Amino acid sequence: MTQIRFAVAGARGRMGQAVIRVLTERDLTIATTFDKGDTIDLSQADVVIDFTTPSSTLALAEACALEGEKRGRALAHIIGSTGFMPQQLIALDAYGERNIVLRSGNFSLGVNMLMGLVKQAASKLAADAWDIEVLEAHHKRKVDAPSGTALMLGDAAAEGRGVDLNEVRVAARDGLTGQREPGTIGFSVIRGGGIIGEHSVLFAAEDEVITLSHSARDRTLFARGAIEAALWAAQQSPGLYDMQDVLGFR
Ligand SMILES: NC(=O)C1=CN([C@@H]2O[C@H](COP(=O)(O)OP(=O)(O)OC[C@H]3O[C@@H](n4cnc5c(N)ncnc54)[C@H](OP(=O)(O)O)[C@@H]3O)[C@@H](O)[C@H]2O)C=CC1
Ligand SMILES: O=C(O)C1=N[C@H](C(=O)O)C[C@H](O)C1
Prior knowledge:
Layout (H helix, E strand, L loop, with lengths): L4 E5 L4 H12 L3 E6 L12 E4 L3 H18 L4 E4 L6 H9 L5 E4 L5 H16 L6 E8 L9 H14 L3 H4 E2 L14 E7 L5 E8 L4 E8 L3 H14 L5 E3 L1 H5 L3
Parallel strand pairs: 1-2, 1-3, 3-4, 4-5, 5-11, 6-8, 7-8
Antiparallel strand pairs: 6-9, 9-10
Helix pairs in contact: 1-7, 4-5
The structure holds NADPH dihydro-nicotinamide-adenine-dinucleotide phosphate and ligand LZUJQKHR.
The site of NADPH dihydro-nicotinamide-adenine-dinucleotide phosphate has 26 residues, from helix 1.
């Protein structure tokens, strides 16, 4: 394939705008851009970069699959949207049969590196002595919580401990909560102003605390990562991928 042709979904959104800016700066080919209510025409696109909402991502997965079947070559669907319900993720994963699906709650190198560090720390620090808490802060316009990144970091910690995050997750605390249950992984969420994305994982023991954290300073970071992911994905076969595959971290 000579020049990979990009479609950008959610083109009027914060991330859509950042993606279009970086594609333009890099002189990459934009086949089409669209937002809510627009007609979707993927006929000239090889990859779709999608920072929208869970429901529109699912609709777009079907549009990618139909277009891929029409031309006899799968499209790559790069998904940055967050806030999926478990059933939506199951439905999305099924598109790995028909599309090249690459989904990540965070396209930065730093967060993907941090996941490995969190997993390693969680695997070494005994659950009865070290409590794990995931903290995140974002801008006031964010509509989902905890963030996709916080859930990825929680998953990495749970994986390090050999447990399922769904079994140990504590999503919020308020009122007379009782003491902290050993082995749980707690989440705390801040929303305010223009914060781009702050994430920390605390490992708290009786006498010491380890904090592993990441701070995003500019959302262009995520756009650049998604474009790298798209260029990589365009060369793959249909299946399910994430940023760990792109970066060779798996
Ligand atoms: N994975 C990562 O690295 C990152 C992920 N994100 C995630 O990306 C998503 C978008 O974030 P952000 O750009 O800040 O949000 P915005 O609300 O700024 O942008 C989302 C855009 O998608 C549009 N949209 C909604 N429905 C559709 C549809 N059916 N078809 C096409 N476009 C649609 C919205 O239109 P309208 O406003 O009219 O509804 C809006 O323009 C969020 O889930 C966020 O958490 C964000 C940053 C990094
Ligand atoms: O909505 C955002 O802005 C962000 N969302 C992603 C998430 O939910 O983790 C990634 C990043 O932190 C910014």
